[in-house]
Amino acid sequence: MKVACTEKSQILGSKVAKTLGLPLVYSQFKAFPDGELYLKTGALDGETLLVSSTADNQSLVQLLLMIDACDRSEITLVLPYMGYARQDKRFNDGEPISSRAVARALSAGVSRVITINIHEPSVLSHFRAPAIDITLAPEMARWVASLGCDEPIILAPDKGAVIFASEIAKHGGWEYDHLSKTRLSGEEVRIAPSSVDAKGRDIVITDDIISTGGTLATAAGMLKDGGARSVHAACVHGVFASGGFARLAAAGLASIAASDTIESAASSYTAAGMIAEAMRE
Fold it and tell me: Where, by residue number, does ATP bind (predicted)?
């Protein structure tokens, strides 16, 4: 087996190859003057582990081209971050179910698919190859432990994300809760933990995705005003759209961390170990 990766996942792909002790195939990428993409990869036959996040449209097209270039190989596709996965329903007539369209397109030519903390697990059913989802909760728990906080509270941004927060919390034996909104007046809303007291405590807000960071920044400010000792933010997929990272930094968070499913300076823990573990099973 060899490991191949697209351009935006080359660091994670390299880590996966090193962790598994497999050779990494060098691939070249460029764009033609008309904007069309070109790639050339090394010899791939037998089995290929293909690591590729699709955080933007260019990465999606590169992945489609890479799958075709590996047509003589049995491909295990690792999608650390799957773009379009959040459009899992048709909300209005005439809309596509984007996650279904992308899953079906990426299924052609692959033997199995591994995703990481996909936003909506039902999306896995759209792949036309066996698909599993793995979690980075253990890696995020190790990062929380490295902060040196005294009995931190792991907070989900809403009730729907509390299961993920509980998965992280159980690895350290920490308390967990979710944020809730209380309308105090026609214009004033309070955001605070649903059941635990944050005063004098270290808070780590966790989620699968941080996109624009707007709600999280507001919550962090209110938690600090309510007496929290420190507020941190951690996610699997750091999208940070529309200046999201700067918004959180401006809100005074003590730290902002993401994994390398989307590679950036915020990548503080890696998905490589969990991918390797899934491959060994």
Answer: 34-36, 86-87
pLDDT, residue 89, reads 85
211 carries a ligand binding annotation: yes
Tell me how far apart the terminal alpha carbons of the chain are, to the nearest angstrom.
15
Domain chopping of the chain, boundaries: 2-135+271-280, 137-260
pLDDT, one tens digit per residue, over 209-221 is 999 998 899 889 8
Helix (H) or strand (E) holding 267: strand 267-269
Residue numbers annotated as active site: 181
Sign of the CA dihedral 65, 66, 70, 76?
A: negative
Query: Does 48 belong to an annotated binding site?
Result: no
Each residue of 241-251: pLDDT tens digit?
999 999 999 99
Task: Select 2-135+271-280's CATH number: 3.40.50.300, 3.40.50.11420, 3.30.70.660, 3.40.50.2020.
Answer: 3.40.50.2020
178 known member of a binding site? no
Known binding residue 95? Answer is no
Nearest to 237 by CA among 152, 148, 133, 146: 133
| Average pLDDT for 53-73 | 96
Report, in this order, helix, strand and coil percent for the chain, each rounded to 5.
35, 30, 35
Average pLDDT of the residues of the chain:
93
Rounded Cα gap, residues 224 and 240, in angstroms = 22
pLDDT at 142: 97
Yes or no: is domain 137-260 CATH 3.40.50.2020? yes
Per-residue confidence at 186, pLDDT binned at 50, 70, 90?
low
| pLDDT at residue 238 in the model | 97
CB 281 within 8 Å of CB 100? no
What is the rounded distance in angstroms from the CA atom of residue 137 to the CA atom of residue 34?
42
